[in-house]
Amino acid sequence: MYVVRPAAAAAAAFLGLTLTVLGTTAASAAAGPAPRPAGGGGPLGLSAPVVYAHRGASAYAPENTLESIDLAMRLGVGWVENDVQRTKDGVLVVIHDDSLARTTNVEQVFPDRKPWLVKDFTAAEIARLDAGSWFSEEYAGTRVPTLKDYMNRVQRNRQRLLLEIKKPELYPGIERQTLDLLDRLGWLDEAHVGRRLVVQSFSADSIRVVHGMRPDIVTAFLGTPKVADLPRYAAFTDRINPWHTTISADWVAAVHRLRGAHGRAMEVDTWIVDDAATARKVQGMGVDGIITNAPDVVRDAVGWF
Question: Lower CB count within 10 Å: N or C terminus of the chain?
Fold first, then answer.
């Protein structure tokens, strides 16, 4: 999943600045996602399959960084996905692992604080860390963004966000804190909630909490429940988002037969698909979205932004 391709990153950045991507120039991509054909039946009214840049364009830039979502924007991909956790002093940050060790130089900066958990470090300490050198020297000095800074960049890029609340059991109250921050930043108005935001989690309890606080928000459960269990999820979520190796066309159809929390057919966004053949395979199963580290590859394979 974590393919280090510095040459590809440089090429992608160059192409994003100079070439036309499926009829949309980088300048128009910067102005916002290209319009999609009408006819989508999901909560956001979009045609399937939507392509989501997993942790940004993370095949080409360090995951969950501002650089990664900027690159997704330059590639013309309108949706990005991220992971939200919380620091020792209560600041929401965007990082996938509950340990800082894999994607930063925390072991060198703070050698005596193993296992280097996000929740054991202050925001100021995390801000000192290099979150890019592990990927390539090209990204040396890249930082772990706060959720506030990340949201401001998504807004500037006119992107849309699939926000994952990561390991909520480690961070009591993170659902309320996340929604409060989104509200302060203007992301819980009708325009954003209706077209630009989905909240997901592996924790059904966490998604249930989000739905209870803001029933208008589109939510998604990460996992592959048995068909017999699907109706239980429909009461508080709109989507079931499974690992692509765990699904079939029949399972996708079973999800689609149910009406979710917003009274519309439930949807399926599958992950992590990084090659054209698999993208076309899951498209054939009828999925509504594909979450990928290589959004340009998948977009070109399935024919949509």
Answer: N
Q: What angle (nearest 5°) sits at the alpha carbon of residue 249, between those of residues 248 and 252? A: 90
Residues 126/16, Cβ–Cβ less than 8 Å: no
93's enclosing H/E stretch is strand 92-94
| CA atoms within a 13 Å half-sphere pointing along the CA-CB vector of 98 | 10
Q: Is 246 exposed, middle or buried (0-12, 13-18, 19+ CB in 10 A)?
A: exposed
> What does the alpha-carbon distance between residue 167 and residue 183 come to, in Å, rounded to a whole number?
22
Beta-bridge partners for 292? 53
User: Tokens 């803001």 appear where?
Assistant: 214
Task: Return per-residue pLDDT of the chain as tens, 305 residues.
Answer: 333 343 333 333 333 332 222 223 233 333 333 333 323 344 454 455 999 999 999 999 999 999 999 999 999 999 999 999 999 999 999 999 999 999 999 999 999 999 999 999 999 999 999 999 999 999 999 999 999 999 999 999 999 999 999 999 999 999 999 999 999 999 999 999 999 999 999 999 999 999 999 999 999 999 999 999 999 999 999 999 999 999 999 999 999 999 999 999 999 999 999 999 999 999 999 999 999 999 999 999 998 65
Cα–Cα distance for residue pair 218/196, rounded to 1 Å: 10
Q: What is the pTM of this model?
A: 0.85
- Residue whose pair of structure tokens reads 């391709």 in the numeric block: 5
The number of angstroms, rounded, from the C-alpha of 160 to the middle of its chain's C-alpha atoms is 9
